[in-house]
Write a structure and sequence with these properties.
Blueprint lengths: L8 H6 L9 H20 L1 H13 L13 H27 L2
Helix pairs in contact: 2-3, 2-4
Length: about 100
């Protein structure tokens, strides 16, 4: 007997569902983590670059990595993504709590 699985069945089942109030603690935790990462990238981009360098050199030493951008660009891009991610998760929590 052969089984036929729908491709992406569980993912398609998630679409259209709304988060519940029980999801709020996890959403707020993710917002705090994204915010702290973005703030760290803005305040200490050289430390972030060093940590990323150590992590990347563990697998492929001497190869090019996206973090090898100038510090102002690293600060803007990575910090902006972190703060933007925090804002997104904060908005999700806001929507869940106000419905």
């Amino acid at each position: 007997m052969q089984r036929h699985w729908r491709v992406g069945g569980s993912f398609l089942g998630m679409q259209g569902t709304l988060p519940s109030r029980s999801d709020v603690p996890a959403v707020l935790l993710m917002a705090a983590l994204f915010f702290s990462f973005g703030l760290f990238a803005i305040l200490r981009p050289n430390k972030l670059r060093s940590a990323m360098d150590n992590f990347a050199n563990a697998s492929k030493e001497g190869s090019w990595h996206p973090y090898r951008m100038p510090l102002p660009v690293l600060r803007l891009v990575v910090g902006g993504i972190g703060i933007g991610g925090a804002a997104l998760f904060g908005y999700i929590a806001y929507v869940v709590l106000n419905r």
